[in-house]
Design brief:
The protein is an alpha/beta fold and 537 residues long. The chain contains 18 helices and 25 strands. The chain is globular, with a radius of gyration of 23 Å.
Length: 537
Amino acid sequence: MPSAHVDTFTADHLPPRDQWPEMIFEGPELQALAAREQLNCAAELLDAAVARGWGDRPCVVSDTVRWTYADLLAQSNRVANVLVQDMGLVPGNRVLLRSPNTPMMAACWMGVVKAGGVAVPTMPLLRERELRVIIDKAQISHALCDARLSEALTAASAGTPLHQIRWVGGTGTDALESAMARHSTDFCNIDTAATDTAFLAFTSGTTGVPKATMHFHRDVMAACLCWPSHVLRATADDVFIGSPPLAFTFGLGGLLLFPMHVGASTVLLPQASPPLLLEGIRSHRATVVFTSPTSYRAMAARGAELRGGSLRHCVSAGEALPAATRELWRQATGLGMIDGIGSTELLHIFISATAQESRPGATGRAVPGYHAQVVDDAGQPVPDDQVGRLAVRGPTGCRYMADERQRQYVQHGWNLTGDAYWRDAQGYFHYVSRTDDMIVSSGYNIGAPEVEDALMAHAAVAECGVIGAPDDERGQIVKAYVVLRPGHARDEGMVQALQDHVKATIAPYKYPRAVQFLDALPRTETGKLQRFRLRDL
C-alpha cells in the first residue's frame, strides 16, 4: 500500500519482515480494518466523530478547559497548519511531544498525526540525558513542548537534528498558541497508509538503552476495537479520568484514544496524585478511571467518598494487581476492578477480565482478538498450572525501530512479553514475575542498568548493582547494592547523597529507594554481575 511519508526514516528502520510477529485479524471489524490501505487514525478518531454528529459533545476537559469534539478538531487543525506552514514539517518527520496531560497536548498529538508526522510523546519527568538519547535515536526534527519544561529540552537539543521547537503556553515568538491564532481551523489531512507509522513509544530495556516501539495507524484503531469493546464496554456518556501520562501507551489509550472512539469525554489532569485523582473523580463526575494498584491502595483510605457516586469502571494496569488490593478497593468503595496486562510493544491490554468475570489473583483471559499461551524456553506450550513465559499475538505486535532486541521479543511468530505466567484450566492467566531485569515500580518500567549508570557517575561509587526488590505498596522498588571508593562513609548521609544524585541525573521516579553497601559485588569469573545472587540477599 502506498506510503504518504516523504521522510522515509521510520519505514527504513522497521525490523526485517521475517522478524515481525504473526499478525491476526479475527472477526468482521478487524478484518475490515486489515483490508484498508489508506488510514489516518487521527482523522478516524476526530474528523469522523464530528462528521457523524458528535461535534457538540464534550471531548477533552480539564479544570480550566472544556473542549467539544468540534473544538478539539479546530485546535488540532491549527496545530497541523503551524507544523506544515511555519515549521516546515513533511510527512514522516518525527515530532517530539513533551507536556503533562493537558487538552493542548491532546491537540498536539492529533495535529501531528493529521499532518502525517510521527508523534513521539515523552514523559515530563525525563532529564536532558534521557531526552538526548530519544532525539538522536529517532532523529527528531520538530518538537512541541510545554514552556515549563523548556530547560531540559533546550539543553538536550543542542547539536542534534532538532531545530524547530514551539513552546506550549509560551510568550515569545516561538509560542505555539500565538502561531495557532494566525492559522485556519481547516486542514486537509494527509492520506497516510494504514501501515505508515503514526507514533513511536519509547520503553526502557533491560540493557538500559531505550527501545522505540513503532505503531502504525492501523495499530491504533485495532487497539480501539479489542479490549475497550469487549471488556471495558464504555459508552458515549462515560467520562474518563486517570493518572498515566499520555506518553505511556496505557495513558494514551485509556485517556485519549478509547474515549474518543466511542464519543465519550476525557478529563486530563496535569497532576494526578491519589488525592488529586480522587478529587478529580468527584468534581468531574468521572465514570471510568485508569490508574495503578499503588494509586488504588492510596485512594482506598478515602474510598467511602466514592460510594454511591458516578464511578462505575475502575481499570488497573501497569503492574500486577494483588488480590488484597482488589479486595481493599471493593470494601472501601463497593466497586469492582478491571485488571489487565498490556505492553508498550503491543500498544495496550491483551489479557483482562471484566469486574464481574474477574478472579482473585488472576489477570484475566486473552482479550478477543488476541491469543495468549504460556511457553517454555523452546517456545513450546506448557501444560496448565505450569509456570512459563507469556507469549501473545493478535492485531498489534512488537516492531522495535532498528534494534537487535527484536529477536528476543518476537520468537516463532509470538510476542514474548518478558513476564512469567501460568494458566489455569478455565483459561485465566496468573502473573508470577518479570523474566528479565526490568523493574516495575508503581506502574513505571525502570531498566536496572540505567540506574546503575547514573550511580556510577557519582564520585564515591566504585561499582554497583541494581535489582527490583518486592514491596507491598509499589509491587517493586529499586534497590541498589553499592561498593564505595575508599574514604567514603557507609552512612545515611551517603544514602541520601546517592539518591539525590540519581534524581538529578535521570527521571526522579527511577531513584533507588533502598541502598545497601557491600564490600564487593557477586560476579562470574569473566566479570559479569550475578543479579540472582543480589536477589538472594
